[in-house]
Amino acid sequence: MNNLDEEYDLFKKICNNHVIENNPENKLICEKIINKGLKLKLTDSGYCLTNDVIKLSKDQIESKLSAETIALIQELEVIYETDSTNKCITDKKVDFGYTILVAESQTHGSGRRQNKWASPLGENIYLSVQFNVKNNNNIHFLPLITAVSICKTLQKSGIVDCQIKWPNDIYLKNKKLGGILVESRYNSESGHTIVVGIGLNINMHTNQEIDQSWTSLFNESNNIYDRNTILSDILSALINQFEHVSELDTQQFLLDWKALDYLNGLKIHIVEDDQTYSGRALGLSGDGALLVECMLDDQMVKKKIYSADVSVKKNDKQIK
Ligand code: BTN
After folding, report:
1. Does residue 112 have its Cβ closer than 6 Å to ligand 1?
2. Which end of the chain, N or C, is less surrounded by CB atoms within 10 Å?
Protein backbone atom coordinates (compact mmCIF):
# COMPACT_ATOMS: atom_id res chain seq x y z
CA MET A 1 0.00 0.00 0.00
CA ASN A 2 1.36 3.47 -0.82
CA ASN A 3 0.91 6.45 1.50
CA LEU A 4 -2.17 7.84 -0.23
CA ASP A 5 -3.87 4.42 -0.24
CA GLU A 6 -3.20 4.18 3.51
CA GLU A 7 -4.66 7.65 3.99
CA TYR A 8 -7.74 6.81 1.90
CA ASP A 9 -8.22 3.61 3.87
CA LEU A 10 -8.10 5.44 7.18
CA PHE A 11 -10.36 8.21 5.82
CA LYS A 12 -12.99 5.59 4.88
CA LYS A 13 -12.77 3.99 8.35
CA ILE A 14 -13.23 7.36 10.04
CA CYS A 15 -16.22 8.15 7.81
CA ASN A 16 -17.71 4.80 8.91
CA ASN A 17 -17.43 6.10 12.49
CA HIS A 18 -14.47 3.95 13.50
CA VAL A 19 -12.36 5.45 16.25
CA ILE A 20 -8.71 5.38 15.15
CA GLU A 21 -6.22 4.27 17.78
CA ASN A 22 -3.70 6.98 18.62
CA ASN A 23 -0.45 5.19 17.77
CA PRO A 24 2.54 6.91 16.08
CA GLU A 25 1.69 5.57 12.61
CA ASN A 26 -2.01 6.58 12.76
CA LYS A 27 -1.11 9.93 14.33
CA LEU A 28 1.00 10.80 11.29
CA ILE A 29 -1.78 9.87 8.87
CA CYS A 30 -4.47 11.67 10.92
CA GLU A 31 -2.36 14.82 10.95
CA LYS A 32 -2.07 14.69 7.15
CA ILE A 33 -5.84 14.21 6.88
CA ILE A 34 -6.46 17.15 9.23
CA ASN A 35 -4.14 19.32 7.09
CA LYS A 36 -6.27 18.44 4.06
CA GLY A 37 -9.31 19.92 5.76
CA LEU A 38 -11.07 17.04 7.51
CA LYS A 39 -12.18 18.00 11.02
CA LEU A 40 -11.00 15.34 13.49
CA LYS A 41 -10.80 15.38 17.26
CA LEU A 42 -8.56 13.35 19.53
CA THR A 43 -10.46 11.69 22.37
CA ASP A 44 -9.22 9.27 25.07
CA SER A 45 -10.14 6.37 22.77
CA GLY A 46 -8.52 7.84 19.65
CA TYR A 47 -9.20 10.01 16.59
CA CYS A 48 -12.77 10.50 15.36
CA LEU A 49 -14.83 12.94 13.29
CA THR A 50 -16.19 16.17 14.75
CA ASN A 51 -19.15 16.16 12.28
CA ASP A 52 -20.70 13.39 10.17
CA VAL A 53 -19.01 12.83 6.81
CA ILE A 54 -20.68 10.69 4.16
CA LYS A 55 -17.87 9.46 1.92
CA LEU A 56 -18.13 9.42 -1.85
CA SER A 57 -19.01 6.03 -3.31
CA LYS A 58 -19.06 4.95 -6.96
CA ASP A 59 -21.70 2.30 -6.13
CA GLN A 60 -23.92 4.85 -4.40
CA ILE A 61 -23.65 7.30 -7.29
CA GLU A 62 -24.32 4.62 -9.91
CA SER A 63 -27.20 3.08 -7.99
CA LYS A 64 -29.23 6.24 -8.55
CA LEU A 65 -28.50 6.59 -12.27
CA SER A 66 -30.89 5.24 -14.89
CA ALA A 67 -29.83 2.39 -17.18
CA GLU A 68 -29.89 4.85 -20.12
CA THR A 69 -27.46 7.18 -18.36
CA ILE A 70 -25.19 4.31 -17.25
CA ALA A 71 -25.04 3.10 -20.86
CA LEU A 72 -23.62 6.49 -21.88
CA ILE A 73 -20.83 6.43 -19.27
CA GLN A 74 -17.53 4.93 -20.39
CA GLU A 75 -15.97 5.26 -16.94
CA LEU A 76 -16.91 6.77 -13.59
CA GLU A 77 -14.05 6.98 -11.14
CA VAL A 78 -14.10 8.15 -7.53
CA ILE A 79 -10.69 8.95 -6.09
CA TYR A 80 -9.28 10.21 -2.83
CA GLU A 81 -7.07 13.02 -4.09
CA THR A 82 -5.66 14.59 -7.22
CA ASP A 83 -4.13 17.93 -8.16
CA SER A 84 -7.17 18.92 -10.23
CA THR A 85 -9.92 16.64 -11.58
CA ASN A 86 -10.04 18.76 -14.76
CA LYS A 87 -6.35 18.10 -15.36
CA CYS A 88 -6.32 14.46 -14.27
CA ILE A 89 -9.28 13.47 -16.44
CA THR A 90 -7.41 14.41 -19.63
CA ASP A 91 -5.27 11.27 -19.11
CA LYS A 92 -8.38 9.24 -19.88
CA LYS A 93 -9.18 8.73 -23.57
CA VAL A 94 -12.85 9.04 -24.46
CA ASP A 95 -13.82 6.22 -26.84
CA PHE A 96 -17.55 6.77 -26.39
CA GLY A 97 -19.92 8.76 -24.18
CA TYR A 98 -18.58 10.28 -20.99
CA THR A 99 -15.67 9.77 -18.63
CA ILE A 100 -16.30 11.10 -15.15
CA LEU A 101 -13.93 11.81 -12.30
CA VAL A 102 -14.90 12.75 -8.76
CA ALA A 103 -12.40 13.43 -5.97
CA GLU A 104 -12.61 13.71 -2.19
CA SER A 105 -10.01 16.50 -2.37
CA GLN A 106 -7.84 18.48 -4.78
CA THR A 107 -4.38 19.83 -4.04
CA HIS A 108 -4.45 22.39 -6.90
CA GLY A 109 -8.11 22.91 -7.71
CA SER A 110 -8.38 25.66 -10.30
CA GLY A 111 -11.04 28.18 -11.13
CA ARG A 112 -11.67 30.63 -13.95
CA ARG A 113 -9.04 33.30 -14.55
CA GLN A 114 -6.34 31.18 -12.87
CA ASN A 115 -8.02 31.48 -9.49
CA LYS A 116 -7.45 28.77 -6.92
CA TRP A 117 -10.45 26.60 -6.02
CA ALA A 118 -10.50 25.62 -2.34
CA SER A 119 -10.93 21.83 -2.22
CA PRO A 120 -10.86 20.52 1.36
CA LEU A 121 -11.15 16.80 1.99
CA GLY A 122 -14.53 15.08 2.29
CA GLU A 123 -16.70 18.19 2.30
CA ASN A 124 -17.63 19.29 -1.20
CA ILE A 125 -18.10 18.13 -4.78
CA TYR A 126 -15.15 18.27 -7.20
CA LEU A 127 -16.37 16.75 -10.44
CA SER A 128 -15.12 16.63 -14.03
CA VAL A 129 -17.07 15.27 -16.98
CA GLN A 130 -15.24 14.67 -20.27
CA PHE A 131 -16.77 13.95 -23.67
CA ASN A 132 -16.21 14.41 -27.40
CA VAL A 133 -18.51 16.60 -29.44
CA LYS A 134 -19.44 15.36 -32.88
CA ASN A 135 -21.04 18.62 -33.88
CA ASN A 136 -19.83 22.08 -32.80
CA ASN A 137 -23.32 23.55 -32.86
CA ASN A 138 -23.99 25.48 -29.61
CA ILE A 139 -20.85 24.32 -27.82
CA HIS A 140 -20.25 27.89 -26.64
CA PHE A 141 -23.44 27.43 -24.59
CA LEU A 142 -21.98 24.50 -22.61
CA PRO A 143 -20.87 26.52 -19.53
CA LEU A 144 -24.27 28.24 -19.40
CA ILE A 145 -26.20 24.99 -19.93
CA THR A 146 -24.18 23.38 -17.14
CA ALA A 147 -25.04 26.22 -14.76
CA VAL A 148 -28.76 26.06 -15.59
CA SER A 149 -28.82 22.24 -15.19
CA ILE A 150 -27.11 22.45 -11.80
CA CYS A 151 -29.49 25.14 -10.53
CA LYS A 152 -32.56 23.25 -11.72
CA THR A 153 -31.26 20.05 -10.12
CA LEU A 154 -30.64 21.80 -6.80
CA GLN A 155 -34.08 23.39 -6.97
CA LYS A 156 -35.66 19.94 -7.38
CA SER A 157 -33.90 18.91 -4.15
CA GLY A 158 -35.42 21.84 -2.28
CA ILE A 159 -32.66 24.44 -2.67
CA VAL A 160 -35.14 26.77 -4.27
CA ASP A 161 -33.32 30.09 -4.22
CA CYS A 162 -30.14 29.21 -6.10
CA GLN A 163 -29.31 31.48 -9.04
CA ILE A 164 -26.66 31.95 -11.72
CA LYS A 165 -24.29 34.88 -11.84
CA TRP A 166 -23.18 35.24 -15.46
CA PRO A 167 -21.44 33.41 -16.94
CA ASN A 168 -21.60 30.36 -14.74
CA ASP A 169 -21.27 30.96 -11.00
CA ILE A 170 -23.85 29.26 -8.85
CA TYR A 171 -25.17 31.64 -6.20
CA LEU A 172 -27.27 31.05 -3.11
CA LYS A 173 -28.53 33.91 -0.95
CA ASN A 174 -26.11 36.41 -2.56
CA LYS A 175 -23.06 34.22 -1.98
CA LYS A 176 -21.09 31.90 -4.23
CA LEU A 177 -22.05 28.25 -3.81
CA GLY A 178 -20.22 26.83 -6.80
CA GLY A 179 -18.29 27.41 -9.98
CA ILE A 180 -17.82 25.83 -13.38
CA LEU A 181 -14.64 25.62 -15.43
CA VAL A 182 -15.11 24.38 -19.00
CA GLU A 183 -11.97 23.55 -20.99
CA SER A 184 -11.53 22.03 -24.43
CA ARG A 185 -8.85 20.59 -26.66
CA TYR A 186 -8.79 19.60 -30.32
CA ASN A 187 -7.46 16.49 -31.94
CA SER A 188 -7.93 15.69 -35.64
CA GLU A 189 -9.03 12.12 -34.79
CA SER A 190 -11.65 12.75 -32.09
CA GLY A 191 -12.50 16.43 -32.79
CA HIS A 192 -13.24 18.65 -29.79
CA THR A 193 -12.92 17.03 -26.39
CA ILE A 194 -14.66 19.01 -23.66
CA VAL A 195 -13.99 18.88 -19.93
CA VAL A 196 -16.69 20.37 -17.73
CA GLY A 197 -15.35 20.90 -14.19
CA ILE A 198 -17.74 21.63 -11.36
CA GLY A 199 -16.98 22.66 -7.80
CA LEU A 200 -19.90 22.87 -5.37
CA ASN A 201 -19.67 23.76 -1.70
CA ILE A 202 -21.79 21.17 0.04
CA ASN A 203 -20.88 20.44 3.66
CA MET A 204 -18.05 22.96 4.17
CA HIS A 205 -18.51 24.77 7.52
CA THR A 206 -15.60 27.21 7.46
CA ASN A 207 -12.69 28.05 5.17
CA GLN A 208 -10.08 30.74 5.74
CA GLU A 209 -8.59 30.40 2.25
CA ILE A 210 -11.53 31.82 0.29
CA ASP A 211 -11.33 35.56 -0.31
CA GLN A 212 -14.84 36.16 -1.61
CA SER A 213 -18.31 35.86 -0.19
CA TRP A 214 -19.16 32.14 -0.25
CA THR A 215 -21.63 29.71 1.19
CA SER A 216 -22.33 25.98 1.29
CA LEU A 217 -25.56 23.96 1.46
CA PHE A 218 -24.68 23.14 5.07
CA ASN A 219 -24.20 26.79 6.03
CA GLU A 220 -27.62 27.70 4.65
CA SER A 221 -29.57 24.79 6.15
CA ASN A 222 -27.57 23.22 8.95
CA ASN A 223 -28.04 19.85 7.23
CA ILE A 224 -25.27 17.47 6.16
CA TYR A 225 -25.97 16.49 2.54
CA ASP A 226 -25.16 13.16 0.89
CA ARG A 227 -22.88 14.20 -1.96
CA ASN A 228 -23.55 10.89 -3.75
CA THR A 229 -27.23 11.72 -4.25
CA ILE A 230 -26.44 15.23 -5.48
CA LEU A 231 -23.80 13.85 -7.85
CA SER A 232 -26.23 11.29 -9.35
CA ASP A 233 -28.87 13.96 -9.86
CA ILE A 234 -26.39 16.38 -11.45
CA LEU A 235 -24.85 13.72 -13.69
CA SER A 236 -28.28 12.58 -14.93
CA ALA A 237 -29.27 16.15 -15.76
CA LEU A 238 -25.95 17.08 -17.37
CA ILE A 239 -25.61 13.99 -19.55
CA ASN A 240 -29.17 14.45 -20.74
CA GLN A 241 -28.44 18.09 -21.66
CA PHE A 242 -25.03 17.40 -23.24
CA GLU A 243 -26.55 14.67 -25.44
CA HIS A 244 -28.87 17.27 -26.97
CA VAL A 245 -26.70 20.39 -27.00
CA SER A 246 -26.63 20.67 -30.81
CA GLU A 247 -30.45 20.82 -30.85
CA LEU A 248 -30.73 23.37 -28.00
CA ASP A 249 -33.97 25.33 -28.09
CA THR A 250 -32.36 28.76 -27.62
CA GLN A 251 -35.64 30.58 -26.93
CA GLN A 252 -36.59 28.16 -24.16
CA PHE A 253 -33.05 28.29 -22.81
CA LEU A 254 -33.16 32.10 -22.60
CA LEU A 255 -36.39 31.84 -20.60
CA ASP A 256 -34.83 29.26 -18.26
CA TRP A 257 -31.84 31.56 -17.82
CA LYS A 258 -34.01 34.58 -17.10
CA ALA A 259 -35.74 32.74 -14.26
CA LEU A 260 -32.35 32.06 -12.64
CA ASP A 261 -30.46 35.23 -13.57
CA TYR A 262 -28.85 36.75 -10.46
CA LEU A 263 -27.60 39.89 -12.24
CA ASN A 264 -30.72 40.88 -14.15
CA GLY A 265 -31.45 44.58 -13.66
CA LEU A 266 -28.62 45.12 -11.19
CA LYS A 267 -25.91 47.75 -11.34
CA ILE A 268 -22.66 45.98 -12.02
CA HIS A 269 -18.97 46.64 -12.19
CA ILE A 270 -17.24 45.14 -15.24
CA VAL A 271 -13.55 44.36 -15.60
CA GLU A 272 -12.83 43.50 -19.23
CA ASP A 273 -9.26 42.82 -20.45
CA ASP A 274 -8.04 46.43 -20.47
CA GLN A 275 -11.00 48.47 -19.27
CA THR A 276 -13.13 48.84 -16.18
CA TYR A 277 -16.58 50.39 -16.20
CA SER A 278 -20.04 50.28 -14.65
CA GLY A 279 -23.39 49.45 -16.15
CA ARG A 280 -26.71 47.73 -15.67
CA ALA A 281 -27.14 44.05 -16.49
CA LEU A 282 -29.94 43.41 -18.99
CA GLY A 283 -29.83 39.61 -19.19
CA LEU A 284 -28.46 37.08 -21.64
CA SER A 285 -28.31 37.73 -25.37
CA GLY A 286 -29.16 35.03 -27.93
CA ASP A 287 -25.48 34.15 -28.38
CA GLY A 288 -24.71 33.69 -24.67
CA ALA A 289 -23.16 37.14 -24.08
CA LEU A 290 -24.17 39.33 -21.14
CA LEU A 291 -26.13 42.38 -22.28
CA VAL A 292 -25.30 45.57 -20.42
CA GLU A 293 -26.41 49.15 -20.61
CA CYS A 294 -23.52 51.51 -19.88
CA MET A 295 -22.03 54.97 -20.53
CA LEU A 296 -19.22 54.83 -23.04
CA ASP A 297 -17.70 58.05 -24.44
CA ASP A 298 -20.55 60.07 -22.83
CA GLN A 299 -23.19 58.00 -24.57
CA MET A 300 -25.58 55.46 -23.07
CA VAL A 301 -25.11 52.29 -25.11
CA LYS A 302 -26.14 48.67 -25.01
CA LYS A 303 -23.18 46.35 -25.23
CA LYS A 304 -22.54 42.62 -25.31
CA ILE A 305 -19.90 41.20 -23.03
CA TYR A 306 -18.36 37.85 -23.91
CA SER A 307 -15.67 37.55 -21.26
CA ALA A 308 -15.22 39.68 -18.14
CA ASP A 309 -15.14 39.70 -14.37
CA VAL A 310 -18.46 41.07 -13.19
CA SER A 311 -19.38 42.12 -9.68
CA VAL A 312 -22.53 43.64 -8.26
CA LYS A 313 -22.22 47.25 -7.10
CA LYS A 314 -22.45 47.43 -3.32
CA ASN A 315 -25.52 49.64 -3.20
CA ASP A 316 -27.57 47.13 -5.23
CA LYS A 317 -26.71 44.06 -3.17
CA GLN A 318 -24.64 43.99 -0.07
CA ILE A 319 -21.92 41.76 -1.48
CA LYS A 320 -19.55 41.21 -4.35
C1 BTN B 1 -14.75 29.11 -10.85
O2 BTN B 1 -15.79 29.54 -10.36
O3 BTN B 1 -13.74 29.81 -10.89
C4 BTN B 1 -14.70 27.71 -11.39
C5 BTN B 1 -14.35 26.69 -10.34
C6 BTN B 1 -14.28 25.27 -10.86
C7 BTN B 1 -13.77 24.31 -9.83
C8 BTN B 1 -13.88 22.88 -10.28
S9 BTN B 1 -13.61 21.72 -8.97
C10 BTN B 1 -13.56 20.42 -10.11
C11 BTN B 1 -12.78 20.91 -11.29
N12 BTN B 1 -11.36 20.76 -11.07
C13 BTN B 1 -10.73 21.93 -11.00
O14 BTN B 1 -9.51 22.08 -10.79
N15 BTN B 1 -11.60 22.92 -11.18
C16 BTN B 1 -12.94 22.43 -11.39
Report:
1. yes
2. N
